[in-house]
Each structure stands twice: as structure tokens, then as C-alpha cells.
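thread: overnight batch results

M.L. [08:02]
morning all. the overnight job finished for the chain we discussed friday. pasting input first so we're all looking at the same thing
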Amino acid sequence: MKKIFLSALITAALVFSSLTATAQFEEAEFIKVSTQKADWFDQRFSEINWTGQGLNQQTAIDPMQTSEVRALLQAEFGDPTLKIEDMLEKPNFRPGMAIQFEYRFVVNDSIPLIILDVFGPFGRGLSYSGASRYIDLMPQIKRTLARRLTGQDPAEYKDYYYSADKEKWYEVTYVDGKYSYEAIDQPEDLNMQ
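M.L. [08:03]
and the structure it wrote out:
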């Protein structure tokens, strides 16, 4: 009888602890990596096998215009970790690597996550990349992120985007409740070689 009771007690404790861990994860904490800490992020997660698996389930933000998602990210997390001007400074930059924005996060103190635009203001949704060893947690991370973003009012921003296909620069903004992307000459302060 003692063995059955002890076994039931251990099983109950394991079930309770797993429920507690799941409940804790329901409120995932996203720490945005600042521009100044982007190199730290690269070094800390240099051994990670990056994947998009587990991040491909549709959420409310996936069909949205990328410019709209960018305004929600600005409202929730502030400025991106990297913008195109940060990429231009890298020694191995190529125009095909041009992005409008990239956000990097550390989720729950240990899980790396990168989200970025794929086609600048001309696309929909985001591109996601996470650590393959946390693939089973990625769907919940993405759902939590989407829930946080859809609860925001959009915030104003101004970015630049370079379309390698069109060989054109664009100023991308959300100002006074209006989204716009306007073809411009290369900004004087951004030098693309």
C-alpha cells in the first residue's frame, strides 16, 4: 500500500511540476536585444542551429502587411535591434542582404529568437528563426508574440529599405495614422558600396 501511495504521490508531483512549467511559459518574457548588444547576441548564440520550424503556424499577424506589423513591434518593443543602416556597416554586406528591420529577442532568459522583414514594405508578415533545440516551444512563443502585438495600437516609425531587385531606396513610415513607402534617392548618410 505504501508503494502505491508513494508512486501516486510522485506521479502527482511530476504532473503538477509540468503544469507549473507550462503555465509559466504561457507568459513568455521577451527581452529585446538592443543595437548595442547585437554582437553579444551573436556571440552568445554562435553555436545555435537556427530553424524556422515550429514557427510556421498561422497567427493573426501573418497575413498583415509588414509595415503594419512593424508599427505594432514599435509599440510593444521600441526600435528594432538592426535596421539597414546597421547592416551597411558590416564588412561583408551585400545589397541582397538588405532588410528594413530585424528584432532579436531572448525569450525566458535562454531562448533566442530573430524576426525580420523579407520584402520590406512590399511583403506580408515576418520571417522567424529560432534555436532548433527549442522547436517544441516555438509555436507557443509565436502565439504569445502575436497576442502581445495584436493588443497594441500602432506606433510611429521611419525606416529605410533598399530593394535590390529594383535597385531603389524607399523611405518607409507610419506617421499621423498613415502608412507610406516612397521611392527616394539614396540617403546621404547611408553609404552603400
